[in-house]
Write a sequence for this structure.
């Protein structure tokens, strides 16, 4: 069994580093590179608004540090436009870009390397949670958890995304393990380590605050005023962590309007409760299985949901409260603040699986416990253990198959917002002297630039409304082909486009995301006079 789990771990590491540059470098990743390079979207928009036509190569200058931008500029960029994102990961990326490189593969290599820290952190947490508490006398459940995380198609996917989510997975596991260790050891050093992990978690992602709340509820319920020394030590360590986080908390407060703008997408759209329910089931199912083959994937996800519910039932029935309560709080506290507002007020906060990573880790801990009690219990009959061995092999095989399919794809569910980039580039790159005109927001333009040839010329007028800047027809004559790009145009924008009288617009590519499949994103632009000239 151990040998099998070691092989699974090796495969998980392999999948984290294979085809790093294969998938589209989407909007969020392009913004990450922009922030890590110390620039703001406003700077880029202003620079290109003042210039005429530029090349893709010049666009890419804003995706890598030039030596003049430091970590201070990274923090300023985030504070000004993205205060909801703390600066730890972006500062690490700044050092990485300057010392290693900023190509797509190298940018994604950083989170892939950081994701390897998940394994020792998982080992520490499971030892504290299952072994030190006496739930298991062997560390087989520890290796089961490591194996499940290693080949989880969800964790592998986000280990290859140039964002902070693999680091947040690490700091969540680390902070939870440090808490249990500090409670057990009761030393100043152990509580100091816990305080440090709280700081790291908060400076990685704001939702790390929910993890801290889960820890606080756990200490209060399990120990409360009956163990005042533990409660006092926890309060001091947590207070220290929050005090050190105060500078960035103040940045968020004074720039809360900008933070709200950055999260506006999560509240302006509303889904039906049935749609939200199906998405939540997908979140859980994609932890273990996803082949992009609907409706078969969803059928598997529904079966996995039953397994997860059974795992939590067994966990709560068979383990002491000090074990199951931590997992329940980790899963619930990180999820309910997103789910409840969506159900009551509307919104899409809970539709992003990356926001509920602590909850998903709790699910995997519960599954690992279920497998562990059915594999290491010597009192169980032989056929019973063989059934669960077969089940483990099936579950892991499905995860490995999912990782293999995902590795070959250029677009996956977490990058569908710019999935059309491949189709756009295929058309534009085949022309000899193309011009791409766009009023799309900077992030989408930067994302598209990774797929375009360096010789493609670009005319940018970034805007949230219809302000397409079309040069006089005579000036467009020197280009072999002229294209217009707009990500997810709304109906007002399309109506305004139809009013343009001096040009003909031929739709070429539709949006890739499900909500944008009925809307073109790329048009071929033909001046009317050129058409008449050719006819004459």
């Amino acid at each position: 069994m151990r040998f099998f789990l070691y092989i699974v771990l090796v495969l998980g590491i392999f999948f984290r580093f294979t085809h790093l540059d294969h998938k589209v470098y989407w909007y969020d990743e392009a913004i990450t590179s922009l922030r890590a390079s110390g620039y703001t979207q406003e700077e880029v928009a202003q620079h290109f608004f003042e210039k005429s036509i530029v090349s893709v190569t010049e666009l890419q200058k804003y995706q890598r540090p030039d030596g003049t931008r430091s970590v201070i500029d990274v923090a300023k960029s985030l504070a000004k436009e993205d205060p909801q994102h703390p600066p730890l990961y972006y500062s690490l990326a700044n050092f990485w870009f300057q010392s290693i490189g900023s190509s797509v593969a190298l940018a994604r290599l950083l989170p892939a390397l950081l994701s390897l820290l998940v394994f020792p952190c998982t080992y520490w947490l499971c030892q504290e949670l299952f072994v030190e508490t006496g739930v298991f006398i062997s560390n087989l459940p520890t290796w089961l958890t490591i194996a499940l995380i290693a080949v989880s198609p969800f964790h592998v996917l986000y280990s290859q995304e140039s964002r902070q989510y693999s680091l947040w997975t690490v700091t969540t596991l680390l902070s939870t393990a440090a808490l249990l260790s500090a409670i057990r050891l009761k030393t100043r050093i152990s509580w100091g380590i816990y305080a440090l992990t709280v700081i790291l978690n908060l400076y990685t992602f704001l939702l790390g605050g929910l993890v801290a709340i889960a820890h606080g509820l756990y200490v209060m319920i399990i120990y409360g005023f009956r163990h005042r020394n533990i409660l006092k030590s926890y309060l001091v360590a947590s207070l220290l962590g929050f005090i050190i986080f105060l500078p960035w908390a103040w940045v968020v407060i004074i720039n809360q309007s900008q933070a709200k703008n950055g999260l506006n997408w999560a509240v302006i759209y509303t889904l039906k409760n049935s749609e939200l329910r199906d998405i939540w089931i997908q979140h859980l199912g994609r932890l273990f299985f996803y082949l992009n083959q609907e409706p078969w994937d969803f059928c598997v996800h529904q079966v996995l949901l039953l397994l997860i519910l059974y795992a939590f039932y067994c966990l709560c029935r068979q383990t002491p409260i000090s074990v199951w309560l931590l997992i329940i709080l980790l899963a619930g506290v990180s999820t309910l603040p997103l789910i409840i507002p969506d159900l009551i007020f509307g919104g899409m906060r809970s539709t992003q699986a990356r926001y509920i990573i602590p909850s998903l880790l709790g699910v995997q801990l519960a599954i690992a416990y279920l497998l562990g009690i059915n594999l290491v219990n010597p009192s169980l009959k032989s056929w019973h253990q063989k059934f669960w061995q077969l089940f483990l092999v099936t579950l892991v095989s499905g995860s490995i198959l999912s990782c293999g399919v995902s590795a070959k794809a250029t677009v996956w569910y977490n990058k569908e917002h710019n999935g059309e980039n491949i189709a756009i580039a295929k058309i534009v790159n085949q022309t000899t002297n193309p011009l791409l005109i766009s009023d799309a927001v900077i992030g989408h333009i930067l994302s598209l630039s990774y797929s375009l040839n360096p010789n493609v010329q670009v005319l940018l007028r970034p805007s949230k409304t219809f302000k397409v800047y079309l040069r006089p027809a005579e000036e467009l004559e020197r280009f072999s082909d002229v294209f217009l790009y707009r990500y997810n145009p709304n109906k007002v924008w399309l109506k305004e486009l139809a009013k343009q009288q001096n040009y003909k617009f031929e739709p070429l590519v539709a949006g890739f995301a499900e909500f944008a499949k009925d809307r073109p994103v790329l048009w071929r632009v033909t001046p009317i006079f050129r058409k008449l000239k050719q006819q004459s």
Summary: The chain is about 65% helix and 5% strand. The chain has a mean pLDDT of 91.
